[in-house]
Amino acid sequence: MKIESFEECIEELTRMVEDKTSEEDRARGALDIMDRLVAGVDSLDIRRFVPAATSYGRHLIYCDPQDRFCLLGLGWRPGQGTPIHDHPSWGVYGVAKGRIRFVNYVLEEEAQGNRLTPTGFTIAACGSSTTVIPPINDVHRLECPAGGETALTFHCYGQEPKEFYVYQRSGERRVGSLGYDSTPNE
Q1: In terms of Cα–Cα distance, which of 76, 86, 72, 78 is closest to 140?
Q2: What is the DSSP-derived secondary structure letter of residue 48?
Q3: What burial class does residue 39 get, using C-beta atoms within 10 Å of its C-beta: 0-12 exposed, 13-18 middle, 19+ buried?
Q4: Percent helix, strand, coil in the chain (nearest 5)?
Q5: For the segment 92-106, what is each residue's pLDDT rounded down to a tens digit?
Q6: Is residue 155 helix, strand or coil?
Q7: Cystine design at 37: which of 3, 133, 152, 163 (Cβ 3.0–4.6 Å)?
């Protein structure tokens, strides 16, 4: 059954986090909800998720007052992408329009220093969803393939990702900061 409003999605996510206690169960529950949200995208008001000219757009849809989950909408122009990063909790993303490339990395610790090595990538098409459960597939990058069409993705995380790491290919990392192009009160 499609989810046809963000309010319905938030209600279902709230019930799910109240019923499930393990990270894996919550991620699987959120994946089912995300599948139904991206299936109902034609009923949603998605006008505010337009990507910025210089970088992808990050829009907070909802943050649970108990920080058990948050829901975001991201708009992407072809060629725009995230830096290589990780997450502090489980996450789910679904592609509502266009396509997104998801590139996984492994951090290799060596005597001469650390480095990141790509371990593969997936092209996620419109209507598909997937999970990220740390530490598996946790260090990654998302991008809208160049030459394609504008994309829209929805992301649900097990907490608002206020603290995470951004990586250089050398393996060096720094604390990342999170900002939004719009929030529910705007």
Answers
A1: 86
A2: G
A3: middle
A4: 20, 40, 40
A5: 999 999 999 999 888
A6: strand
A7: 3
Answer whether 0.90 is exceeded by the pTM: yes
Q: CA-CA distances (angstroms) from residue 50 to 2, 76, 172?
A: 23, 8, 32
- The Cα–Cα gap between 148 and 12 comes to 33
State the DSSP H helix or E strand holding residue 94, giving kind and residue range, or none if neither.
Answer: strand 91-97
Q: Which of 44, 28, 160 is nearest to 97 (CA)?
A: 44
- CA within 13 Å, CB half, 43: 14
DSSP bridge pairs for 72: 60, 155
pLDDT digits (tens, 9 = 90+) for 102-158: 998 888 877 667 788 899 899 999 999 998 887 666 889 999 999 989 999 999 999
Sign of the Cα torsion 9, 30, 148, 180 reads positive
Beta bridge partners of 63: 70
- Only one residue has tokens 């849809």, namely 61
Of the candidates 64, 80, 63, 81, the one whose C-alpha atom is nearest the C-alpha of residue 72 is: 63
Buried b (16+ CB within 10 A) or exposed e, 63-95: bbeeebbbbbbbbbbbebbbebbbbbbbbbbbb
What are 112's two structure tokens? 């001469």
Yes or no: say if 14 and 71 are a contact pair by the CB < 8 Å rule.
no
